[in-house]
Design goal:
heterotrimer, A alpha/beta (268), B mainly alpha (267), C alpha/beta (252), B: 267 residues, mainly alpha, 11 helices, 2 strands, globular, C: 252 residues, four-stranded antiparallel sheet, 9 helices
Chain lengths: 268, 267, 252
């Protein structure tokens, strides 16, 4: 069972703390959203979890292993796959199938050819295997990233604002694909959009490097005051409810547009 | 105006060849051309081979020769340098270190012809293979050197990645340029220093962008388990096509050597 | 004030634009369409930054040679274009070539930096030491400081935090009130819904050019339809409509 334990970590790049006394645990197969605006430290957190940045204050345990343990960092990275934000900055080879094979080769996995074929076909990119990845379309590039992540068979998947370069339809497609491929794993999505966090199992809200909320989407995303503090735009339905409240109309808390519609129809 | 040897996508046998076999074949052809130059027969042979190769690759040769016109000063210089410094038994005239003779003229012409032949061959290679394919072919070919602890794989990976970043940075450069233009940048100024300074709105962001991407890429690579030593699997797809072309190139090389032998014996 | 592109065509490796004819006037125009459909290039064409292969750009009937006068363009990731040693130097860059006197330049920069919520203490710092969001605002400030009659924006809402989103709304609103011309490429349904007009680009051609409420299928539009109130794509109008709806219900 995959697990991440973040224990009272703080981190600075040299000019003030970017993360401050942060703690939380994540276990098992679920989908967690880490929500926050620019500068809330969320991308730094991703890099710390994978041991890409040196952690000096506090500790992070991935599947029980500390990220500070240099000898075991490889084991940690083997169980984590990260998809960063800009696909153009992540391709390591000018041939797609080689890029997909990069992870498995580094971890000396067996039957790499088979793994690569399966990964590419899972994202419907088999016909593109000899293409130069940078010449693919936006959506295809993201799928290429997913193939590369799939190939290493991770327990934990970190999505660092991964699909933010796509339009709404593209992003929904990617979210569905990810949810489908890795439904038994621990998925952590970093995002600045509350609307995107609605469908996760749990939402952790960061503001100025501190954790200010940790709970179900309903608990966290319906609270306008918390979201305002984090400089995150509330989901559509929540905003409408707030706007109506300002005009003297009071309706019960709602999270999705569907719920909003129901509530309004039944308004008395 | 096309660049000599700009890549033309296609499906000819030369395009479809395995990258390494292609480099091996062309290397042998270069050697063949070098060896064959020296006799008239050798030149005729080389020209014939060149034309057949261009035909095989479905690349038109006229534009290539046509664009060489731009370099006529270069060819004239080569001609003159060789024509005037060739020692000879019966020169037209001789003055100081310069000797002008029929031998010199012939030699000069042969030099120019050799340069044209070799350049055309190189242009064909770059026309049928992208820089990445060429780098890939070189990498596999030089792979054995890595056993001598020469970082061949790393070097070629670096080159490949750098090449694949070119269009990405170019696109970003375009945006940055348009952006700066819209803010009134780049009228330049008269002095060289002013002109250079006026490029700062372009160069600073581009450098930063390149560094940023390099940073992001290094994170991505580390996250995927890269630990400094690339043990890339060497994949050669060596089929009938490749065997045939290497065989043909080898034959051409041998023929060139034989021709050379014949012309030496003959004279 | 009318900007017209007539029969413009452009061909590139990854996309093409065919026979585009648009007239843009004062107010807010949104351009939507699939990623990679050439929307950004269309903006560059309208601003006179690039020339079409065919067709021409004219302003009030006269052909535009070179850059469109009094225009500002904010591309995606504007923070990537920063280059100067201090914030104020970067923001004032465009003005320093315009012949305005120093005091006027300083006052305009101060005005726009305050609008963008960049504190005074940061004005003499290097823009590269600011946070991501601040850098983005400084870059946008560098364009807005010229107070352009034509403002072009490419996907301004991507990655935007809440306060900046509201600020964007404010800027669009005030530009509209000042009868300037704003053209935004966006896939954000709310911003597009806020526009006076939506142009849809599909496969290199204009497939629709109409009111936002006619074409968009955002949450706002669908909710207004579902409740039976006046169909709208504008958030504020929706809320007003719902308010009336609720009060109507209460009194029945």
């Amino acid at each position: 069972m995959p697990s991440i334990v973040v224990d009272n970590i703080s981190f600075s790049y040299g000019r003030g703390d970017v993360l401050s006394s942060l703690s939380f645990r994540a276990e098992g197969s679920c989908h967690i959203s880490i929500l926050g605006s620019n500068g809330s430290g969320k991308s730094t957190l991703v890099r710390l979890i994978d041991g890409l940045l040196p952690l000096r204050r506090g500790d992070i345990l991935v599947n029980g292993i500390s990220v500070k343990d240099e000898k075991s960092i490889r084991e940690i990275r083997e169980s984590i796959a990260i998809i960063f934000q800009d696909p153009d900055s992540q391709f390591v080879s000018p041939v797609l199938e080689e890029d997909t094979a990069f992870g498995p080769e580094n971890y000396e996995m067996e039957n790499i050819d088979q793994i690569v074929s399966r990964s590419l076909s899972a994202v419907s990119l088999s016909d593109f295997r000899k293409r130069v990845p940078q010449t693919l379309s936006g959506g295809e590039k993201e799928r290429a990233q997913i193939a590369g992540a799939l190939a290493v068979n991770p327990d934990i998947v970190l999505l660092d604002e991964s699909f933010s370069m796509l339009d709404d339809d593209g992003r929904k497609e990617m979210d569905a694909l990810v949810g489908d491929i890795w439904k038994e794993r621990l998925i952590i999505s970093i995002t600045h959009s509350a609307d995107q966090a609605i469908n996760s199992d749990r939402v952790i809200l960061l503001s100025g490097g501190k954790l200010i909320a940790d709970g179900s989407p309903r608990e966290v995303l319906c609270s306008v005051s918390l979201l305002r503090k984090a400089d995150v735009r509330p989901p559509f339905a929540v905003r409408v409810r707030e706007s109506l409240k300002e005009r003297g109309i009071s309706i019960p808390p709602v999270l999705t547009t569907g719920e909003l519609k129901e509530v309004l129809w039944n308004f008395r | 105006m096309e660049l000599i040897g700009a890549y033309k996508p296609g499906t000819s046998p030369l395009h479809r060849m395995d990258n390494t076999a292609r480099i091996v074949s062309f290397s042998m052809l270069f050697a063949a051309f070098l060896i064959a130059s020296g006799s008239i027969l050798g030149y005729v042979f080389s020209v014939a081979v060149l034309l057949v190769l261009y035909r095989t690759g479905s690349i038109p040769i006229r534009p290539v020769l046509h664009s060489m016109k731009r370099f006529r000063m270069f060819f004239i210089t080569i001609f003159l340098m060789n024509a005037f410094f060739q020692p000879s038994e019966n020169p037209f005239f001789s003055w100081w270190i310069l000797t002008f003779s029929i031998d010199g003229i012939m030699f000069g012409l042969r030099m120019v012809l050799s340069v044209i032949l070799l350049t055309s061959l190189a242009a064909l290679l770059t026309a049928v293979a992208t820089p990445l394919e060429i780098t890939d072919g070189l990498r596999t070919l030089l792979h054995p050197l890595s056993f001598l602890h020469i970082p061949v794989d790393q070097a070629s990976s670096i080159i490949s990645i750098a090449i694949s970043f070119i269009p990405v940075l170019a696109a970003e450069g375009e945006n940055i340029t348009l952006s700066a233009l819209s803010r009134g940048a780049f009228p330049g100024g008269r002095k060289l220093k002013d002109k250079a300074m006026s490029l700062i709105p372009l160069t600073v962001p581009l450098f930063l962008s390149a560094f940023r991407r390099a940073d992001e890429l290094s994170f991505a690579m580390e996250a995927r388990g890269y630990n400094g030593s690339i043990k890339r699997r060497v994949k050669l797809s060596f089929g009938l096509n490749e065997a045939v072309s290497v065989f043909i190139s080898l034959s051409i090389l041998i023929a060139a050597i034989l021709l050379k032998g014949v012309s030496i014996v003959g004279s | 004030m009318e900007l017209s592109l007539s029969h413009a065509s452009l061909k590139r490796d990854t996309f093409h634009l065919s026979d585009i004819s648009i007239s843009i006037g004062a107010g807010l125009t949104a351009i939507t369409g699939k990623s990679g459909s050439g929307k950004t290039t269309l903006l560059s064409l309208l601003a006179g930054l690039i020339r079409p292969d065919e067709g021409k750009l004219s302003l009030d009937g006269k052909e535009v040679e070179g850059l469109l006068p009094s225009c500002g363009i904010i591309f995606q990731h504007p923070e990537r274009q920063l280059f100067a040693s201090t914030v104020i130097e970067d923001v004032s860059f465009a003005l320093r070539r315009s012949g305005l006197d120093r005091d006027e330049i300083v006052s305009r920069c101060e005005k726009v930096l305050s609008l963008m919520d960049i504190g005074k203490e940061k004005w003499n710092e290097s823009p590269f030491f600011l946070s991501g969001g601040e850098r983005r605002r400084v870059a946008a400030a560098g364009v807005l400081v010229t107070e352009p009659s034509f403002l072009f924006m490419d996907e301004p809402t991507v990655g935007l935090d809440s306060a900046s989103y509201e600020r964007l709304y404010g800027i669009l609103d005030s530009y509209r009130k000042e009868s300037r011309c704003v053209v935004i490429v966006t896939h954000d349904q709310e911003i597009a819904g806020f526009a006076d007009r939506v142009i849809v680009l599909d496969d290199g051609r204009i497939s629709a050019d109409c009111l936002p409420s006619d074409i968009l299928s955002s949450d706002i539009v669908r909710l207004s339809e579902a409740l039976g109130i006046e169909r709208t794509s504008d958030y504020n109008k929706l809320v007003s409509g719902i308010e009336a709806f609720c009060r109507g219900r209460k009194w029945n």
